[in-house]
Amino acid sequence: MLHLILAVVLIFQTAFAEKLYVVERERGSLAVIQDGKLIGEIKDLGNLNHSIVKTSGNYSYCIARNGYFSKIDNRTDKVVKKIKPGKSGIGFNFVKDYIVIAHYDPKKVTVLTKDLEIKKVIDTGSRNVGIKPYKNLIVFSLMDKDQIWVLDADKDFEVVHTVKDAGKMPFDALIHKNRYIVGFFKERGVGILDLDSFSYKKAVFRSDNQQEVVFKIPHFGMWGVFDKKALIPAVGEKRAYVVDIEKMKVIKHIDLPGLPVFISVSPDKNIAVVNFSGDKDYLLSVIDLKKLQVIKTFPAGKRVMHMRFSKDGKKLYLSSYFDNSLKVYNTESWKLIKEITVPTPSGIFIVR
Fold first, then answer.
1. Which residues make Cβ contacts (< 8 Å) with residue 235, sequence separation at least 6?
2. Interatomic CA distance for residues 175 and 196, integer angstroms
3. I need a labelling partner for 102 at 20 to 30 A (CA). Which of 13, 25, 47, 137 fits?
4. Per-residue pLDDT tens over the stretch 329-338
């Protein structure tokens, strides 16, 4: 009997072996989830509305919207260091052994060591967005100057290339292979910068009959990218577009039960999940990426804020804001495996 109990415990612990940091949006804290349990909180991190957590080795880094930037030891779940390099942080990324932060305010980009010592501050004269790494390069867009800058970490973060008149008000971007793809607030289509040749072009989305397809591109973090395609949630429409992001061609659209917000793709690229805003914010839809159609929609929680697949793809972590809970679903049966109390949860980040 004891052997059976130990086997069950081992299976349970293995099933929840990942450690998660879950944003407690209204508390300025991160909930620490390990072995399927809430084991603690990391407090006083700043305004965590739309905050980002990224992990490098044994440490995670958290940027707050009011400018605070924190280094967290994943082994102890303690803040090692906290600084305030700006008044409004929008995003950051790693390149080589450095961290580069794009600020709204001040209109600068800050380069830090991983010990959060300031290496360099670059004045851009603009709010800065869409910061992405590629090899030894760091690329970002200047929202107020309609430009793209490329810095080289091997050359003391010198500006090695600038795209002027990139498009009207760039606001977010993604890296696809060697291409930096940027979207605009005030212009149709996207801009595409080849980071090997530095050639730049603009593209609009077109359908099979070569008609231009116009839709507002939301933040690229909401895109579900798989193979050479992206699943893009339409703004103000109950549908998602399937786009070939190499040819910039709309393949088809998928009708949805509500207005989509985030689309998250499973590690094996077989399925994606979509959450919704408005009166359908309690639903979750599952899309088969081979058939490109919705195969299941079900009530998943009161205001589903964020979703994250486990590394093996067998579980889906989901934050339910008004249920004050992190829910864990089996991705084959879509049955609820576990529910963990977390106050006002939003972003979910896997630490290990």
1. 215, 216, 218, 259
2. 13
3. 25
4. 999 999 999 9
